[in-house]
Amino acid sequence: MAFLCVCGSERSYFLQYIYIMLVEFTVENYRSIKDAQTFSMVAEATKYKRDTNTVQVSIGKDDHVQLLKSAVIFGANASGKSTFIKAFRNFKTIIMTTGRLPEGKPNIFYDPFLFEVENQEMDTRYECVFIIENIKYRYSISFNLYNITAEELNYYPKNVKKNLFKRIISKKGELADDVRLAKDVKGIDLKLFPEHFKVFKNQVILSKFGSEIPDKFFNAVYSYFEAYWMIWSENNSQGIEELSRAVITGIDHQLGDDFFKQVEKLVKAADTKIDGLLLKEEVDNGVKRRYLKHTPNNEQRTKHLFGNHIVYKRDKVFSNYELPFIEESAGTNVLFALGAYVLVVIRLGGVVFIDELDNSLHPKVARFLVSLFNNPTINKKNAQIIFSTHEAHLIDKDMFRSDQIWFANKKEKGDTEIYSAQDFNDIREDIPFDKWYLAGKFGALPDIKDIEYIFNDDEDGK
């Protein structure tokens, strides 16, 4: 799970950094996304909630950009909002895993739009703009099933575009592409890494260099995606259990007791009727629920989470009962795993992407988690959250600016488009966004047929 790498040593590279933020993301020809769709975290000029929901970031020389701390994507079922969150995951996974692919290995992350013949063999393209230590970067990549067809990394010191590397596509039949490195790329020992000028046609340059070759630019950008992009798209019990285990491991070994107490307060604040959380060491020797302070060296010990509940007798506190957390409700388990996930990002910085935030969570709890990002006193590292939902009541003018509200809509031919509330004329910050959305003023609503249509034998539904 992503949590494991978030808490690892790779984050130490960024401890001195002030801003690590996402600016813009573009995806083209991926699943239901046919044409290029660009999602922006750049704030509009409006002063509404400017001091809480946005942050001004200095970039280059005498320049700055105003960025949003949170954004929400609304849409009907099958509108493509989940696909857009998956696009972030797909993009990150390509960077993390394809640097060591052997020659000729197919790219399993190639998943084009299938409902247009031309798109079935066209390139998938990603482009991401982000900020590391107040310097803007732009990374782009295009690929098909077997080849990376374009890849480039630029950055903008002193507001001037400078290239760090660019992929030079070799002739047909050759096994590898050339890599043109800029003069700014330093620290690479050409004697130790003579092969850095070439990569296989199916290998991602940033993936290979970031994981294998020491250079401050490559390592910084690679670590940004590896450690500062946290993506939640698990809506099944196995995924939540795995994430909970990762959270427990992180609490136990890396984040410390104060973080555990913070997660405990979050669980209690959500009115779960849990009086406290306990981490206990189980001896994994085949005897269930046996807990000891000391165990022989040959016995495996594992941390397990319990919820402490008050036991009453005739309306008076009698004792307490330690319930294994996995036996708590599905919503409580989601709250623990996802809440801890959010608190990690708040504490360390970065961006968290969440698919269907309202899944198994009450809307008030979901609002509470999002509000953490818009609170400058709590969100001191200017972490960002981007989430999808179909819960209209989360669109609240008291919570979001109009440029934070996005919509996913499935067009006539089955392809997804995304757009912001700011794309509509005469949008004011005081309008009731939830009521306007449900009234169809922003689109992105399901077009549900009359109930008689289901039972009508006429194929035309007349």
Automatic annotation (TrEMBL):
What keywords sit in the KW lines? ATP-binding, Nucleotide-binding
| Keyword Amino-acid biosynthesis among UniProt keywords | no
The record lists the organism as: Chitinophaga agrisoli
ATPase AAA-type core domain: residues covered: 71-396
What is the name of this protein? ATP-binding protein
Q: Which domain of life is it from?
A: Bacteria
| Lineage of the species this protein comes from | Bacteria, Pseudomonadati, Bacteroidota, Chitinophagia, Chitinophagales
Q: Which GO terms describe its molecular function?
A: ATP binding; ATP hydrolysis activity
Family annotation (Pfam families): AAA_21
Q: Which InterPro entries match?
A: ATPase_AAA_core, P-loop_NTPase
